[in-house]
Specification:
InterPro entries: DUF3604, Pol/histidinol_Pase-like. By secondary structure, the chain is of the alpha+beta class. It is built from 15 helices and 23 strands. The chain starts with about 50 loop residues before the first strand and ends with a strand.
């Protein structure tokens, strides 16, 4: 796990880069602590047995993470909670950052490997002497090269870590827990205690965020220094549960796992067993599918008939080589298909997870807003010029970050109240969905014999649950006929109208092979399905020159009651819903406007929400 200057790609020709200063308005105005906006407590929501919708981010890093610290971050867990609660904090590049709307819940999830060690032991790195902002304004591109070089060359993490690093990490962990306790405000805001277990064998991403239900936690987080095998992590969590610590883990970035995250074998290459499936489902009830490193829902290589499969694809590994990441085994929809195939052949299913989104922000923040994006790692992308390749030696189209990173995503949870217990339990039962950033409201139920006018009834949610289940659950035994699905979605009032609602179905045939199909079930305007069930595009109102769009296409609200026309009661199946917005400007278009340059393609994107699946299994 040692990190040295050899882990960052430096070559002497870098010093040949132009060194003129860069005009970068994104660096202004400078942060002013005296005038910074303070967070305000949100009004509490009443207990609701039909559940309230809560928005959160369970993947935020601070200076306690080694990669964040070496990239200039000095913010703490307190800063992170200040940010997600609506307050303004200082970005490592010197300007103030703030969310347009506060979140309802969050977790600081710093890397457990050498947690807090650099913050406690690192020398006074050049960032403290001449920061990123100063280098950019006065030295330009060469200044950023110098900053990276000065920061990393001659500084080896192995030299900073002594045999007593665990003691430092214990103190940092206590500070993390204390910060969550301080900011947790039941009914108003929920702060979860968590960390990131950063397994990365051969540069292949197997990271998990570990989230606790309460403040009773181990003395030191489990880390990949102990083991890179997720089975060992689950065993550690099982031991903690036996000691009264309710906990689960959230896999993320399957898209850069090179096929390992949702493989059809275990970590050691042996066939998946029933015991493995039981442990994985118990300790990993949800997976993260949207974040700064792109989408892990699906990939065009796996879903070639899905016109929306190419959304925010980041398909190279995180290693220095930037090799392509194998698609098979790296995406959630493929995992759900693999799961029902294994269920058909072996009688157990290791992939019965729900989904959420998260940011993976490393600035003690959640950079999920396209028009307010401020990057992930300050030295690499802490300003518009850096992100757009105007003040950086990395090629903008292939660098680890730059224009390839996404302003995404958020976790949506349907829970009775805004408390640790209620939200944690809702996530365990998978009553969750993921968005790529916008706060699209979405409800999804499946059941039998729903009345045709179900969605017109005031009490439709109560009725939908009486004869069915919400997202994330299993359909009750078949009662004859095909299952019905009730879907309702409303746009984020600060984002684009809705284009359409889709249901994605996966099923396994009698030979054990899985299949998938996308059904358009509700849409805006007067469009009609063609003979193949396809729907023409909604249109695009984005003006790249001004980074604006208009909501004169699409609908504010869509709903549908849909019955599977191809249902076979003998076939195991899953169903999830996907809500697509009309096109809106991508963050790169906003940055291009800031810098006065032509925006790169794509200038727009169709943000979305993706639900946890409802499953059907024959008796």
């Amino acid at each position: 796990m040692a990190l040295s200057h050899k882990d960052i790609v430096f070559t002497l020709p870098l010093l040949m880069l132009a060194c003129s200063p860069v005009e970068d308005p994104s660096l202004y105005p400078q942060f002013n602590a005296e005038t910074a906006v303070k967070p305000q407590a949100k009004a509490p929501t009443a207990y609701n047995p039909q559940r309230n919708l809560y928005w959160g981010d369970l993947h935020i890093h601070t200076s306690y993470s080694t990669d964040a610290y070496t990239n200039g971050v000095r913010a703490t867990p307190d800063d992170a909670y200040t940010f997600v609660k609506g307050g303004e904090i200082e970005h490592a590049a010197g300007y103030g950052i703030r969310m347009a709307r506060p979140l309802d819940f969050a977790a600081v999830t710093d890397h457990s490997e050498y947690l807090g060690v650099l913050q406690a032991t690192a020398p006074d790195l050049p960032l403290n002497e001449r920061g990123l902002r100063d280098r950019l304004l006065n030295d330009g591109r060469l200044g950023v090269t110098w900053l990276l070089t000065d920061t990393m060359i001659g500084f080896d993490l192995e030299d900073a870590i002594t045999d007593g690093w665990q003691g430092i990490s214990k103190m940092a962990w206590r500070a993390t827990v204390e910060s969550a306790e301080q900011h947790n405000d039941p009914g108003h805001f929920t702060a979860f205690v968590g960390y990131e277990w950063t397994s990365m064998p051969g540069g292949q991403n197997l990271h998990r965020n570990v989230i606790y239900r309460g403040a009773k936690v181990p003395e030191l987080p489990y880390s990949s220094v102990n083991s890179e095998d997720p089975r060992d992590l689950w065993t550690a969590l099982e031991t903690q549960r036996s000691q009264g610590m309710d906990v689960f883990a959230i896999p993320h970035n399957g898209n850069v796992s090179n096929g390992l995250m949702y493989n059809n074998v275990m970590f050691d290459g042996k066939p998946i067993t029933a015991a493995y499936a039981t442990m994985r489902n118990e300790y990993e009830p949800i997976s993260e599918i949207f974040q700064v490193k792109g989408s892990s829902e699906t990939n065009p290589l796996l879903s070639n008939e899905d016109e929306f499969a190419g959304f925010e694809i980041y398909d190279t590994q995180l290693s220095q080589t930037q090799e392509n990441s194998k698609a098979k085994g790296s995406y959630a929809r493929d995992a759900l298909r693999t799961g029902i195939e294994i269920s058909h052949s072996e009688g157990f299913n290791p992939y019965r997870f729900g989904v959420i989104g998260a940011s993976d922000g490393h600035n003690a923040s959640s950079p999920v807003e396209e028009n307010n994006y401020h990057g992930k790692l300050p030295i690499l992308d802490g300003s518009a010029a850096l992100r757009m390749g105007k003040a950086n030696y990395f090629p903008a189209d292939r660098m680890a970050g730059g224009t390839r990173w996404s302003a995404a995503g958020l976790a949506a949870v349907w829970a009775e109240e805004n408390t640790r217990g209620s939200l944690f339990d809702a996530m365990k039962r998978k009553e969750t969905y993921a968005t790529s950033g916008p706060r699209i409201a979405l409800r999804f139920f499946g059941g039998w014999n729903y009345p045709d006018d179900l969605l017109a009834k005031e009490e439709w949610i109560v009725l939908a649950e009486q004869n069915g289940v919400p997202m994330g659950r299993d359909l009750p035994a078949a009662e004859g006929g095909a299952p019905d699905f009730a879907i309702w979605a409303m746009r984020d009032p600060r984002s684009g109208n809705l284009d359409r609602i889709q249901i994605i179905k996966g099923w396994v045939d009698s030979e054990g092979a899985s299949h998938e199909k996308i059904f358009n079930v509700a849409w805006s305007g007067q469009r009609q399905l063609d003979d193949s069930g396809n729907l023409r595009p909604v249109g695009n109102t984005v003006d790249p020159s001004t980074a604006t769009y208009t909501n004169n296409i699409g609908e504010a609200q869509l709903s549908a009651l849909w019955t599977d026309p191809e249902f076979d009661p003998e076939q195991e199946a899953f169903y999830y819903t996907r809500v697509i917005e009309i096109p809106t400007p991508r963050w790169t278009t906003f940055d291009a406007l800031t810098l006065g340059m032509e925006p790169p393609e794509p200038v727009s994107l169709q943000e979305r929400a993706v639900s946890s699946a409802i499953r059907y299994k024959p008796r």
